[in-house]
Write a structure and sequence with these properties.
The chain has about 100 residues and is of the alpha+beta class. The protein has four helices and four strands. Strand 3 and strand 4 form a beta hairpin. The two termini are about 25 Å apart.
Amino acid sequence: MRQVLADFDSYMNEKDTWAAKTPEPQKNPVAYFSAEFGFHETLPIAAGGLGILAGDHTKSASDLDIGFAGISLFYREGYFQQQINQDNWQTEFYTLA
C-alpha cells in the first residue's frame, strides 16, 4: 500500500508535463460533459462504451496536466439488470452492491 501511495504522490506531483511546457490549456480549462464516466469497476457510474471513452479522456487530461472539469449525472439507483417479460416489455431490477 505504501508503494501505491508513493506512486500516486509521484504522479500527482509530476512537474514535467505537457501542460507545463504548453501553458495555454491551463489558462482555458475544459468543461467535459458526459452522461457517464467509466473510472473503475468499484464506482458503477458507467455502463457502456461512451462512458469508458469519457473516462479515458479524463485520464489523458490528467496525464497531460490539462485544466479539466468532468460534469455528469450521478445515478442514485446505480446499475440495474434488465430483461424482457412475456409481453415484450423491458423490466428492470436493481441489485444491491
